[in-house]
């Protein structure tokens, strides 16, 4: 229960941080999300010789009074489920973005909506290495950022395609502030 209340407090902080229409969002459920993340080389290309790093998180599902669906990812709930040394080479922004996309895709498959906002902290402390990698907000006053996604279906696949449509200035593109990284 304490974990849920903490998660709910983060979601409410997120809801009031940047988007006025979300201040009335209420939790309607939660889901566990797991996604494979590729290690990315310095030139931005995926390294195909490594296996995917599996990351997961609990995601809170919210609904606004306008009926919009929102998801909240709390950094301290992010877990590496098949750790190896290569996780240290994957950027925090890449991990959080992959989880956000997976949350929207999974929510779509659950029938929530084909467009959604995903909230997360805009400053994340990453500590540890390999299987001991942990994530946390930079402080109790860390602001939240949002990303808007749209889902489309591919006629040749049963998998939904998730596309980033926009984000707040505190988390442009796929960047997150990562501090105190220990490697």
Descriptive report:
- By secondary structure, the chain is an alpha+beta fold.
- Residues 1-21 and 172-183 have low confidence and may be disordered.
- The protein has one domain (2-179).
- The chain is globular.
- It contains two helices and ten strands; from the N terminus they run H-E-E-E-E-H-E-E-E-E-E-E.
- The relative contact order is 0.17.
- The strands form two sheets. Strands 1, 2, 3, 4, 5, 8 and 9 form a seven-stranded mixed sheet that branches.
- The protein has helices at residues 2-17, 92-109, and strands at 26-37, 53-63, 69-73, 79-80, 115-121, 123-127, 134-137, 144-153, 160-167, 177-179.
Question: Could you list some keywords that capture this structure?
Answer:
2 helices, alpha+beta, 10 strands, three-stranded mixed sheet
Short note summarizing the structure:
The chain has 183 residues and is an alpha+beta fold. Helix content is 19%, strand content 37%. The chain has two helices and ten strands, in the order αββββαββββββ.
Largest sheet: 7 strands, mixed
How many separate structural domains? 1
Order of helices and strands: HEEEEHEEEEEE
The percent range for helix content is 10-25%
The separation of the N and C termini measures 33 Å
Strand content: 35-45%
The number of E-state strands comes to: 10
Structural class: alpha+beta
Mean pLDDT: 74
Which radius of gyration do the C-alpha atoms yield?
16 Å
Number of helix segments?
2
């Amino acid at each position: 229960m304490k974990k849920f209340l903490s998660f709910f407090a983060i979601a409410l902080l997120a809801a009031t941080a940047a988007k006025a229409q979300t201040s009335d969002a209420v939790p309607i459920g939660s889901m566990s999300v797991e996604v494979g993340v590729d290690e990315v080389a310095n030139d931005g290309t995926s390294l195909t010789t490594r296996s995917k790093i599996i990351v997961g998180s609990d995601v809170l599902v919210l609904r606004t009074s306008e009926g919009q669906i929102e998801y909240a990812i709390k950094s301290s709930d992010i877990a590496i489920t098949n750790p190896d040394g290569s996780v240290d080479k994957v950027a925090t922004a890449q991990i959080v973005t992959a989880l956000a996309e997976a949350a929207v895709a999974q929510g779509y498959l659950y029938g929530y909506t084909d467009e959604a906002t995903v909230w997360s902290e805009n400053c994340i402390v990453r500590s540890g290495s390999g299987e001991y990698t942990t994530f946390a907000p930079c402080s109790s006053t860390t602001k939240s950022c949002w990303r808007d996604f749209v889902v489309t279906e591919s006629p040749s696949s049963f998998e939904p395609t998730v596309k980033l449509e926009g984000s707040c200035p505190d988390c442009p593109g796929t960047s997150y502030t990562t501090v105190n990284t220990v490697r």
